[in-house]
Every structure is written in C-alpha cells, then in structure tokens.
Specification:
- The protein is α+β, with helices and mostly antiparallel strands.
- It has two domains: 106 residues, Peroxidase, domain 1, CATH 1.10.520; 78 residues.
- Helix content is 60%, strand content 15%.
- The chain contains eight helices and four strands; from the N terminus they run H-H-H-H-H-H-E-H-E-E-E-H.
- A four-stranded mixed sheet has the order 2-1-3-4.
- Helix 7 links the parallel strand 1 and strand 2.
- Helix 2 crosses helix 4, helix 2 packs across helix 6 and helix 4 crosses helix 5.
- The longest helix is centred in the C-terminal third of the chain and has 19 residues.
- It is elongated and about 70 Å long.
Length: 191
C-alpha cells in the first residue's frame, strides 16, 4: 500500500469538494491546525492508531483536532463529512499525510510558493523586504511568495536560500565541506 498515493487521492477529493462548496480556505486552515495538533499531541496520535475505538468517536476527534466547530444535526461541515468518510474506509491512520497533501495541493491551486533565507547573522528587516520584493518581481504573474528568514551561526558566513524545491547554498560551511572532501579524495589517491 502506497500511503503517499492514497493520501493524495483523498486530499484531491477533499480539495475538489471544498472548492465546490467554496470552503477551500477554511479546510486549508483546518488541515494546518490538524498538522500542528498531530505533531504536539501524543493522545491524538494514539487515537488515530487505535483500532478498538468506534468510528464515530474517531471522526469526532479528527474534527476536534482540525478545530472544526460542532454543527447542528443534519448540517454537517465539509470536514465532518470528510472525517466520517476517512474513518469508514479505515484510513484514519493516514490522516496526517492527507492533511499535508491537502496543504500542498492548496498551495498549487492558489499559486503560493515559499522562500526561506538562512544566514549566519541576522538580516535587517530592510534587506529581507528588498529580497522578498525582488523575488516577488521575478515570480510568474499571479504567484504569491511567502518569505521568512532564519539565523544559523553554524553556516559561518554566507547564506542558504530555498524556494520550493530550488536550493542555493552559498554558505561558508558548505564551501569548507567541499574543500575538505576534495582534500580527502586527493590524499586517498596519493596514499
């Protein structure tokens, strides 16, 4: 069983249904809430992996972990319907993968990319803003770039910039590592 393929299929179905009902943003927020709660709450992980719990209780826990508000009888939310579907097919254990897949599909749908700059020393707000504007100006029309920065003194100097799957590593630490590998390779041949 390929969990990634199954999770993506469920996520596509959820996104399609959410778009149809014009609640894709709400479901996006709920999936992010679920991911945070899943990472932080051991009890949630235990519930999703416990085969002895009844389906209704597990679906309710999934909705609570998503931050979904209880609705009146006969008027279920998209997440309540989806949680019931997931549990009825015994897929509650892959719900975290489904939530991650939904978030990725939502980003694709809304043309959202993420840029991340890691430097050895803090970057001023002015420089970070200029970099974000520069990146946004080179992005395809309609593409939204979310940008954040991080300080990692282990880089020694330089920076690492990543946007989606593209990574530019101009850090001193990686340059030193390359030199070290070259030196070791060269000396192995000599000995």
């Amino acid at each position: 069983m390929d969990i990634g393929v199954i999770a993506k299929r469920y996520a596509k179905a959820l996104l399609s249904y959410a778009v149809e009902n014009k609640v894709e943003e709400t479901v996006y927020q709920q999936c992010q809430t679920f991911i945070r709660n899943y990472q932080q709450l051991e009890q949630l992980r235990a519930v999703l992996s416990d085969p002895l719990l009844d389906a209704k209780s597990v679906a309710k826990v999934i909705c609570q972990a998503c931050g979904d508000k209880p609705s009146s009888p006969g008027k279920e939310s998209v997440m309540q319907k989806f949680a019931a579907l997931v549990v009825s097919h015994h897929r509650e254990s892959i719900m975290p993968f489904i939530a991650h897949a939904y978030v990725s599909l939502y980003h694709e749908l809304k043309h959202i990319s993420f840029g991340h700059l890691t430097t050895a020393v803090p970057v001023s707000k002015e420089i970070a803003d200029k970099l974000q504007k520069w990146i946004q100006s080179r992005a395809p029309k309609g593409e939204k770039i979310n940008f954040d920065t991080e300080v990692n003194p282990d880089l020694l100097g330089g920076f690492i910039f990543q946007i989606d799957d593209l990574r530019l590593d101009a850090s001193l630490a990686s340059q030193f590592e390359k030199i070290k590998k070259q030196f070791i390779d060269k000396n192995k041949r000599i000995v």
